[in-house]
From TrEMBL:
SUPFAM superfamilies, alphabetized: GST C-terminal domain-like, Thioredoxin-like
Residues annotated as domain GST N-terminal: 1-81
Classification via InterPro entries: Glutathione-S-Trfase_C-like, Glutathione-S-Trfase_C_sf, Glutathione_S-Trfase, Glutathione_S-Trfase_N, GST_C, Thioredoxin-like_sf
Family of the protein in this entry: Belongs to the GST superfamily.
Gene3D superfamilies to which the protein is assigned, alphabetical: 1.20.1050.10, Glutaredoxin (3.40.30.10)
Organism, scientific name: Nannocystis pusilla
Source taxonomy: Bacteria, Pseudomonadati, Myxococcota, Polyangia, Nannocystales
UniProt-recorded name of the protein: Glutathione S-transferase family protein
Amino acid sequence: MSITFYYAPNSSATRVHWALEELGVAYDKVKLDLRAGDQHKPEFLAINPNGKVPALVVDGTPMFESLAMIIYLGDRFGADKGLWPRVGSGEHAEALAWIVWGSVTLGGTIFRIFYNTSEWFPAESRNARQAETAGKEFEAQLGVLDQRLRGPEYLVGDGFTLVDVANAAALGWALTMIKVDMTRFPGVAAWLDRCTRRPAHQAVRAA
Ligand SMILES: N[C@@H](CCC(=O)N[C@@H](CS)C(=O)NCC(=O)O)C(=O)O
């Protein structure tokens, strides 16, 4: 088996990197310099025609989209390591629901806030009303997550899984730019702390 992981630090690749480290599978890393435009080079576009990180090549098959990679890695390696429910189980259904929710529903809201507030985007394309509406949705979604995490320590099943990796990575990044009083969401705050203190997360941050 061979896995090659294409990444840039502090990007959408981080959660895949964290998943790979948690799983402990052997893989080769290729670091791209996004500022230098490595993602637009023909050899990389042959792997990900979107010109974005992360990308993964597993036994010669290229993949893009970090969510797809985490689900694939979970299905293939996660159950044996206790980091992903068995395919076909009720917990697997729950894992899919929470991991897709984190990327599509919560992630969609996070990006709406980002596009409408960040100075990465031109002032004329930012809309304060959109940002405000998305901000309220974000807090409502944090409330949903908090309900889930009042009691259970992790999102699915009895222990930490790649569902926690995917969602904690996205939310951790979001909270560096969106100011929220997290004392209102103590279940989420304690879960984020539990997840990000893990050695695999610390190793990825240093990479
Ligand atoms: N939905 C994609 C997003 C990938 C993405 O937007 N990657 C950014 C870094 S966070 C990128 O490579 N940007 C480089 C560019 O657009 O030139 C995923 O989750 O894999």
